[in-house]
Amino acid sequence: MGMFDTVTLKCPKCKHDNDFQFKVGPCCLNTYNNYEAPPSIVERLIDEVWECGECKSKLEIESLYPIRNIPFIINLKEQ
Question: Is the pTM of this model over 0.90?
Fold first, then answer.
């Protein structure tokens, strides 16, 4: 079994915490939120549309702020 990192994103609609695993970046079994995720993982988040595990809303990363301690923005994607 390979190593990975996890990013936890809160759905803006239902507030459910969604865990997404990545095999890019440090891959040290770390868990990050949208304040802490390393750039290599954030780049991967921006390229995808994610689905909330609870309400099935489509989640999309709208923008990334390059300033430390400011999270990227998660928006609901229109279906």
Answer: no
